[in-house]
Design goal:
Layout lengths: L12 H9 L2 H21 L3 H20 L1 H15 L2 E5 L2 H14 L4 E4 L3 H6 L1 H7 L3 E4 L2 H9 L15 H11 L9 H18 L2 E4 L3 E3 L4 E6 L3 H7 L3 E7 L3 E2 L5 H12 L7 E5 L13 E7 L3 H5 L15 H4 L4 H4 L10 H12 L1 H4 L11 H5 L6 H13 L16 H14 L2 H14 L11 H4 L12 H7 L6
Parallel strand pairs: 1-10, 2-3, 2-4, 4-7, 5-8, 7-10
Antiparallel strand pairs: 5-6, 6-9
Helix pairs in contact: 3-12, 16-19
Amino acid sequence: MGAEPQAAAGNDFTARAPKALNDPTLRANFRRAMDGLMSKRAAQFADTPAWEALRARGAAAKARVLARLPELLVELEENCRANGIEVHWAESIPEANAIVLEILRAAGARTVIKGKSMVSEEMELNHHLAAHGIQAVESDLGEYIIQLAGEAPSHIVMPCIHKNKAEIAQLFAERIPGLGYTEDVDALTAAARAELRGRFAAADAGISGVNFAVAETGTLVLVENEGNGRLSTTLPPLHIALMGIEKLVETLEDLPPLLALLPRSATGQHITTYVNMITHPRRPGELDGPEKVHLVLLDSGRSRVFGDDQLRDTLRCIRCGACMNHCPVYSRVGGHTYKFVYPGPIGKILTPQLEGLDCAGDQPHASTLCNACVEVCPVKIPIADILVRLREESVRPGHSGAVKGGGARRSWLETLSWRGWMLIYSRPWMGRLAAWGMTRFGNLLPERLPLLKAWTSVRAKPRFAAKSLHELAREQGYCDE
């Protein structure tokens, strides 16, 4: 049960976008959701000076982490181990999957209840475990819905935001035995709760993500609204936490601004319902908590991103989704059009760096560069600047290796075209000759030029004036030859 692996379908944003644009139900679902999220966020940050001050604190906390990331990771490991948490390092996704499978097999686990985790989506963990006879069930309501539908998340905070009430009602009627069709939200929620409660109690292990890890104390911090995450990390005897190596903060003092920024930016809440801080497994005399806690630290290309002074700002992200909610592209085509785990503006800069420009090189071009994402990012990630950098890297000759798959979109035809443009406009006589030619013969060119069909397929062919600006100025005596 779950979505098909992401990599199987490849990635061609340009080819998939028209299908989403021509789906009126999808467009309406996203428009309604985005409008609500934007207005709620705006209400939380109505005091602009206070917002900017809080934002500056959050950005500074993440910047400090990136300035000392390697040593802080070592500090986190040492403190986690001192607290009784076992730490595992995974350089790649296959290695991370193997580690999780080994931990579960050693514990004799056959069933897993999962809290929300984007790293587990990167790993396609559910499919990996299913292939080895271990059933993983999503406990977050949104994740549970799309698991029933066999889909991937379309948003990093609200995974089933692309579905409306009627679609969810139909899905539940088909997949939950004994539940007829109903659009009553309370009845749908109760049905999901009834299905999941037994899974919580019977699960051999719980798996969760990590929102922040505190290097100073070896504490894993999870934020949530439903309580499912707390049950996933408390009821089962074994807890496995999955974390990208960038999800660090230095000290507990760095948490308050980030915990204030995250829910306000993500869902427009003043504060999230639950903040869970896990520092150790169950100790003698304690009434609840797992007997063992494991932390899996995933790299999967993040060290390469960290190695570039400009691109490392990508790793500031706290996964709030505000950039998606305000993106004019994402709000019209939805998350599944991007095909990878991280859609929207953050996905356009993170995915090409993790997967490679040869695999996801079209993502940085799926942007208007309107800067809306930059204006709302709670940790001041310069998304537009990084998009431009990745576009440049995708066509750069003699690539330096800063980005995986750099130069993959370089085209001899595009290179020749720009060289021709440079040649013409660096020589005045050639520029005048080209202008004269276009004014006399440009309008005779066919409506759908083979070399410009991507442009003219959605735009009218330019109409050229009968005379160039230089000719008109000369006729009126404003300039000489």
